[in-house]
Automatic annotation (TrEMBL):
GO terms for molecular function: calcium ion binding. Residues 3-37 form the EGF-like calcium-binding domain. It holds the Pfam family EGF_CA. It comes from the Eukaryota. It comes from Euroglyphus maynei. This is EGF-like calcium-binding domain-containing protein. InterPro entries: EGF-like_Ca-bd_dom, NOTCH1_EGF-like. Keywords: Disulfide bond, EGF-like domain. Signal peptide: none annotated.
């Protein structure tokens, strides 16, 4: 039984678990336990320079 929502991956931790969305997916309402939906556009991280 997977406690995480659709498309989310369950990661075992000591005494608990975490739900994580795969690349290019976003957590529903910021909570992967509710599920992960494919992002409408590709999301890229930008490196900031000082």
């Amino acid at each position: 039984m997977n406690p995480c929502g659709p498309n989310a991956k369950c990661l075992n931790t000591i005494g608990s678990f975490q739900c994580q969305c795969p690349d290019k997916y976003l957590a529903r309402d910021g909570n992967a336990e509710l599920g992960c939906d494919r992002a409408a556009v590709d999301v890229y991280c930008l490196e900031q320079s000082d």
